[in-house]
Structure formats: C-alpha cells, structure tokens
Design a protein that fits this description.
Layout: H1 2-20, H2 24-31, H3 35-49, E1 54-64, H4 93-105, E2 110-115, H5 122-137, E3 141-145, H6 151-159, E4 164-166, H7 176-179, H8 185-197, E5 201-203, E6 206-208, H9 214-225, E7 233-238, H10 255-268, E8 273-276, H11 285-293, E9 298-300, H12 313-323, E10 326-327
Parallel strand pairs: 1-2, 1-9, 1-10, 2-3, 3-4, 4-5, 6-7, 7-8, 8-9
Bound molecules: S-adenosylmethionine, 6-(5-methyl-2-OXO-imidazolidin-4-yl)-hexanoic acid (DTB) and iron/sulfur cluster.
Iron/sulfur cluster binds at residues 68, 70, 72, 75, 77-78, 116, 118, 147.
Length: 329
C-alpha cells in the first residue's frame, strides 16, 4: 500500500515537473492552431488574468545614445554600422527628471531609461541611481535597460528602487549567433539572474521579423516561459529596419504571424504584461487591435522609441477612444 502510494506520489511529482516545462513541441502546436482558435484561447486566458479593456503605458527615454561597441545586427546604435545617428553623451539627471514629468503628465505609468552600453561603468551606475531615485519620486514606476550587469551592479540598482530591468533575449538560442557575436546568450541569462537575485522585476522579450524561422519564435518563447519565475513584462518587438544596419533589407514577417507570436506569448505567460513594442508606427490600427485581442496589454507610448519614431500619442489616444480601451495606472 505504502509502496503504491509512494509510486503514485512519485508519478505526481514527475507530472508536475514535466508540466512546468513547456516543450517546444507543445509551443509549436499552439502556433499551428487555426488562427481564430489560437486568438480565442489567448483572449480567454487574458480575461482570466487581466481586465479585458486595460492597457499599461511605458515611456522610453534614450539617456545615452549611439557609439555602442556591440554588434547587434538590428541596432542603429552600434558603432559598427553607418546609420547617420547622432551620438549623445549620458544625459544630466535634471534632463531625465524633466522627461519623466512630461511622461507622467501624458499618462504613462512607467518610465524606461535606455543606454547604448555593453555594460555600465561604476560611475554610470551612480548616475543612474540618482536618476532612478528622482524618477521614482515623481510617482512613476521605473525601468532601465543599460546592458549587461554584474551581481553588484544589479544590487545597486535594486537598492535605488528600480522596479524593472529590461534585458531582452532577442531570439532563440539557435538563431542568436546569426544576430549578435559580441555577447552570448548565456551572458544575457546571467544578467537576468542577477536582476532577479537583486529583487527587481524582469522585463524580457525579443524581436521578430529578423529573418528567423517559426522554430526560433518558438525557441524564444520557450526560453522565456520556462524561466522560473516568468518575466513580469514581455516586450515583443517587430524589427524596425534602419538603413545601414545588416538587417535593413530583411523580408517582412507576415503580420498574422506576428499576431500569433503575441497570442502564444499570452497563453504561455498568462500573468505577464505582454507589450506590443517596436514596430507600431508601421502597423495599421486594425493590426494593433488584433494584437490587443491576442493578449497584448501594454505599449511604448511617446513620440519616439530610443532612436526611431513611434506611433504618436495623439494617434494612440484616438485609437484607445475608438476601442474603449482604458489606460491603467
Ligand atoms: N544596450 C542595451 C542592451 O542592448 O542591452 C539596452 C538598449 S537596447 C537598444 C534594448 C533592446 O531594444 C534590444 O535588446 C532590442 O531587443 C531592442 N531593439 C534595438 N533595436 C531594435 C530595432 N531596430 N527593432 C526592434 N527592436 C530593437
Ligand atoms: C524593448 O524591448 N524595446 C525597446 C525597449 N525594450 C528598450 C527599444 C526599441 C528600440 C527600437 C529601435 C530604436 O528606437 O532605436
Ligand atoms: Fe548596443 Fe544595445 Fe544596440 Fe546591442 S542593442 S548595439 S548592446 S545599444
């Protein structure tokens, strides 16, 4: 009897462990569902976890622009590509505070500061600590994306009250070397571990439309969904093609495949804010609406992303009005 009980328990335990890890086969099955079935499932899960009409707004600010030593082949800020970008030094804290005030007045709940660094230096961390404290004092959630972090740097940012750290995996482990050679996938996972250990929330997602296969979108989402805990915030970027970058001639991804990626992300990470991120400027209102139906419930809000344009706030507010979407605090 006890033996039987033990074996049942052991089986249960095994089932639990297996259940926790999403396999790539399971995720591929989701991608392969009829579109309407996939979107229905995503919307159902979305409603179990969020107000169906709620959207969260994050505003980006590039606090240090261009001249980055990394070779990310999608990025206009890499010093290796001639993109005509104007390099800008680290912005003074006062300027960051002013931008945060404007973001808050315009309705954003989170302010995300991005810097074109491989990893910050100690003096950069000290500067960002001051900026984070000041932005928080404005009543905004704070997020930063500053490149790779050591455990100590993550601890300093966490102690300053940084709510979220954004560090994207960008694509699957297999496709990654096609896109970036100057830092490894494992480097990224290590930074994400440091962010978690420092008690901050994780903002981690990727880019689609970089010429990857569906297998790579599956691989990216598998890696994200199998993190324990899962990221609280998952930006899904559609590649913004910038002249001079190696990816500027990449073939457009089928827009419905982009929507599928959002839907699968929502199903796999039911409690995450799935952010419809870069690429919105080129999307129709109807395409964005499909993404919201598929479970996206956050956007980057503001005139610009980091160095490229974004859908305008006026346009976004008009779309929310048409859709009767409510901005959450
Ligand atoms: N330098 C830091 C880093 O890479 O960790 C932080 C800033 S970096 C610009 C933040 C993220 O923006 C990248 O990881 C990438 O996912 C996204 N990104 C950059 N250029 C993009 C583009 N052209 N289209 C879409 N997403 C892009
Ligand atoms: C993220 O996933 N996308 C944002 C933010 N995190 C930092 C950046 C998008 C950048 C798009 C290209 C640019 O404007 O430079
Ligand atoms: Fe540098 Fe970040 Fe751009 Fe890569 S994505 S080139 S690390 S700014």
């Amino acid at each position: 009897m006890t033996e039987q009980l033990l074996s049942v328990e052991a089986t249960d335990l095994k089932t639990q462990i297996v259940d926790q890890a999403y396999t790539k086969a399971q995720i591929t099955e989701l991608f392969d569902l009829p579109f309407l079935e996939l979107v229905f499932r995503a919307q159902s899960i979305h409603r179990q976890n969020f107000e169906s009409t709620d959207i969260q707004l994050s505003t980006l600010m590039s606090v240090k622009t261009g001249a980055c030593p990394e070779d990310c082949s999608y990025c206009p800020q890499s010093a290796r590509y001639k993109t005509g970008l104007e390099v800008e030094q680290l912005k003074p804290v006062a300027e960051i505070i002013e931008a945060a005030k404007v973001a808050k007045a315009n309705g954003a709940s989170r302010f995300c500061m991005g810097a074109a660094w491989r990893s910050p230096k100690q003096k950069d961390i000290e500067h960002m600590v001051e900026a984070i404290e000041a932005v928080r004092a404005q009543g905004l959630e704070t997020c930063a994306t500053l490149g790779m972090l050591s455990a100590g740097q993550a601890a300093d940012l966490g102690a300053a009250g940084l709510d979220y750290y954004n560090h994207n995996l960008d694509t699957s482990p297999e496709y990654y070397p096609e896109v970036i050679s100057t830092r490894t996938y494992q480097d990224r996972l290590d930074t994400l571990d440091h962010v978690r250990d420092a008690g901050m929330k994780v903002c981690c997602g990727g880019i689609v439309g970089m010429g990857e296969g569906q297998v790579d979108r599956v691989g990216l989402l598998a890696t994200l969904a199998n993190m324990d805990p899962q990221p609280e915030s998952v930006p899904i970027n559609n590649l913004v093609k910038v002249e001079g970058t190696p990816l500027d001639q990449t073939e457009e991804l089928d827009p419905l495949e982009f929507v599928r990626t959002i839907a699968v992300a929502r199903i796999l990470m039911p409690q995450a804010r799935v952010r419809l991120s870069a690429g919105r400027e080129e999307m129709s209102d109807e395409m964005q609406t499909l993404c919201f139906i598929a479970g996206a419930n956050s956007i980057f809000y503001g005139e610009d992303l980091l160095t490229t344009g974004n859908a305008t706030p006026e346009h976004d507010l008009a779309l929310f009005e048409r859709l009767k979407i409510k901005v959450s605090g």
